[in-house]
């Protein structure tokens, strides 16, 4: 069997390793230059590859093609493969065939990384044999190849879910759905929503779907679509027949029996959105028979994700916060909503069809100055120049931080929460966050 892997990043190289281990004849093709660390892995494993081109004669000879999530369906090569009826799958589809471990799949526009890390943290504390991966850390395929985990906790993007056929998590979590990546979905929100719900498409009555009860997009989808899985919503406003809810500011889990887990005041992560993430994680762990004491301890001592509302330093009474992972408007909304002091907001990058008007009330209330960090800031400037006294355009993290340092006064916050992708000026959101932190430390 010939397996062709398109894209030699984390998921591509993981698939290549697993494919070789499973006896496939593997060929890796990348249109760009393959990063050194991945090239070494391919060489060490004697896997044949090409870079800076796609040789169609070799690719069209495949029995199955694994397409990396970053490659759009719309490119001619993918269309040609479909015309030839060559099977195109995603890495998580390929890898799931080769593990007997229980899969927890977590998706959503925001909160999926934090929720994935929370679930992993709880299961580790419960001494379970667990691996965390997918869209975070190691690829699922690499995990399956290298370890024999009993549990896989996977953060899943819509792009990863687009390429599944039989992939089925025992527990699926949808944290929320807000417009994101619309450039990949013909600017149709419903296409993106349907992608997210693919996480439950193969689930049966013995599986579980955990979701935000208050999310209108999710609620509307349920009006027109049936799900086989057992539904376990979480809610911070409503008492539920079944699921997770708050009573007197305590997290209550109700499924078969009712359990008080803890007071939200002792959660390590603050903010409404983090309470929801904690509820989803608690429900997941409870289904996996983790003791409530372990769940509570884990949620009390968890340290947050890097680049997500991460306190960097306080300088001259000004707090600098790195929220580089806020790559869409809704994530920036959470960040601005949690600001308690006048804010100098660093925003911008690659716009994915953003509508900034949702942020208007928060910007009016909290933001004293906007610093644009991107190549094309026109939309941001046009939206906010009447609302904020000062809007400055910059072309790099260091410049943005220096401008912020001049503007911010004692008691203010400087918040990097870009609401955009980072690829115009940076490698990725981590690179953007790291450069921001370095610039702050060098002030």
UniProtKB/TrEMBL annotation:
Keyword tRNA-binding listed: no
UniProt keywords, alphabetically: ATP-binding, Cell cycle, Cell division, Cell shape, Cell wall biogenesis/degradation, Cytoplasm, Ligase, Nucleotide-binding, Peptidoglycan synthesis
Localisation per UniProt entry: Cytoplasm
GO biological process: cell division; cell wall organization; peptidoglycan biosynthetic process; regulation of cell shape
Binding positions (ATP): 108-114
Principal location listed in the UniProt entry: cytoplasm
Catalytic activity line of the entry: UDP-N-acetyl-alpha-D-muramoyl-L-alanine + D-glutamate + ATP = UDP-N-acetyl-alpha-D-muramoyl-L-alanyl-D-glutamate + ADP + phosphate + H(+)
Residue span, Mur ligase central domain: 106-284
UniProt key word Cell division: yes
Cited Pfam families: Mur_ligase_C, Mur_ligase_M, MurD_N
Recorded metabolic or biological pathway in which this protein acts: Cell wall biogenesis; peptidoglycan biosynthesis
An MF annotation (GO) of this entry: UDP-N-acetylmuramoylalanine-D-glutamate ligase activity
Enzyme Commission designation: 6.3.2.9
Domain (Mur ligase C-terminal): residue spans on this chain: 307-420
GO CC annotation: cytoplasm
Function text: Cell wall formation. Catalyzes the addition of glutamate to the nucleotide precursor UDP-N-acetylmuramoyl-L-alanine (UMA).
Family designation: Belongs to the MurCDEF family.
Protein name, as recorded: UDP-N-acetylmuramoylalanine--D-glutamate ligase
Recorded name of the encoding gene: murD
């Amino acid at each position: 069997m010939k397996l062709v892997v398109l894209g030699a990043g984390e998921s591509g190289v993981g698939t290549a390793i697993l494919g070789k281990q499973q006896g496939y004849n593997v060929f890796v093709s990348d249109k760009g230059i393959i990063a050194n660390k991945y090239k070494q892995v391919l060489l060490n494993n004697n896997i044949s590859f090409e870079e800076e081109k796609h040789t169609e004669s070799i690719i069209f000879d495949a029995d199955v093609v694994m397409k990396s999530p970053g490659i759009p369906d719309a490119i001619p090569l993918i269309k040609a493969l479909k015309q030839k009826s060559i099977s195109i799958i995603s890495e998580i589809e390929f890898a799931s065939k080769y593990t007997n471990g229980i899969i927890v799949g977590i998706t959503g526009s925001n909160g999926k990384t934090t929720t994935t890390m929370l679930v992993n943290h709880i299961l580790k504390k419960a001494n379970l044999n667990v691996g965390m991966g997918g869209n975070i850390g190691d690829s699922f395929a690499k995990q399956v190849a290298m370890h024999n985990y009993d549990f896989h906790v996977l953060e899943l993007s819509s792009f990863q879910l687009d390429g599944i056929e039989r992939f089925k998590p025992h527990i699926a979590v949808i944290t929320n759905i807000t417009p994101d990546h619309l450039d990949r979905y013909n600017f149709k929100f419903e296409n993106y929503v349907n992608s997210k719900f693919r996480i439950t498409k193969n689930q049966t009555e013995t599986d579980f779907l955990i979701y935000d009860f208050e999310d209108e997009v999710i609620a509307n989808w349920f009006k027109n679509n049936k799900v086989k899985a057992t539904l376990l919503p979480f809610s911070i406003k409503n008492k539920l027949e079944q699921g997770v809810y708050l009573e007197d500011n305590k997290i209550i889990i109700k499924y078969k029996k009712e359990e008080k887990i803890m007071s939200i005041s002792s959660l390590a992560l603050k903010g409404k959105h983090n309470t929801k993430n904690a509820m989803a994680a608690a429900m997941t762990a409870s289904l996996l028979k983790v003791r409530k004491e372990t769940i509570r301890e884990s949620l009390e001592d968890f340290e947050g994700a890097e680049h997500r509302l991460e306190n960097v330093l306080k300088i001259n009474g000004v707090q600098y916060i790195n929220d580089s992972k806020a790559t869409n408007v809704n994530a920036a909304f959470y960040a601005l909503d949690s600001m308690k002091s006048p804010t100098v907001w660093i925003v911008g990058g690659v716009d994915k069809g953003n509508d900034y008007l949702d942020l208007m009330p928060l910007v009016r209330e909290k933001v004293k100055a906007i610093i644009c960090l991107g190549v094309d800031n026109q939309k941001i400037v046009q939206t906010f120049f009447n609302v904020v006294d000062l809007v400055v355009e910059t072309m790099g993290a260091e410049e943005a931080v220096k401008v912020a340092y001049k503007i911010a006064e004692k008691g203010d916050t400087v918040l990097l929460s870009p609401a955009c992708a980072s690829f115009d000026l940076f490698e990725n959101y981590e690179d953007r966050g790291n450069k921001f932190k370095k610039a702050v430390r060098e002030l």
